[in-house]
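Researcher: I'd like a candidate sequence for this fold, 160 residues long. If you have to choose between options at a position, lean toward the conservative one.
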């Protein structure tokens, strides 16, 4: 009788473990399916965000709003990281680090120094880096320039 009870318990435990294993596999398949269907931003969305933050950065720096300028630099870096994470299938992103990171780091230094002439110099270098990247990746029709007008009329770029 003891053997029958022991064997029954072993079979019951094995059955429960097998059912749990099946549930885990079902859940993993569902997770994989949801990840495959999840929204992933495209390169165009990231580039549009970069263009907006590039413009806002100019007006922040020219108005000596260094906190905002630093924030906009962080936004640029965040978007570049997003490109590298979500747009791995794009050949164009391979050159983004060498053409954009160094000018952003130099611009960040100018913002930390709160130096408008240095800010202008490095902002121009960043803009030239964007255009060099566009030319190298056969997107020379996307020409970036120093903005003439703030991108948003509902934001005050002057120092608070």
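Model: Candidate sequence:
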């Amino acid at each position: 009788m003891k053997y029958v009870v022991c064997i029954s318990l072993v079979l019951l435990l094995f059955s429960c473990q097998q059912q749990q294993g099946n549930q885990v596999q079902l859940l993993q398949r569902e997770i994989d399916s949801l990840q495959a269907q999840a929204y992933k931003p495209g390169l165009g969305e990231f580039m549009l965000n970069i263009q907006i933050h590039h413009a806002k950065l100019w007006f922040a720096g020219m108005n000596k709003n260094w906190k905002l300028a630093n924030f906009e630099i962080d936004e640029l870096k965040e978007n570049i990281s997003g490109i590298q994470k979500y747009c791995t299938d794009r050949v164009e992103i391979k050159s983004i680090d060498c053409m954009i990171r160094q000018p952003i780091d130099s611009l960040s230094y100018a913002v930390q120094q709160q130096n408008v002439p240095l800010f202008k110099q490095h902002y121009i270098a960043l803009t030239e880096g964007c255009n060099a990247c566009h030319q190298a990746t056969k997107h020379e029709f996307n020409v970036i320039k120093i903005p003439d007008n703030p991108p948003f009329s509902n934001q005050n770029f002057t120092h608070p």
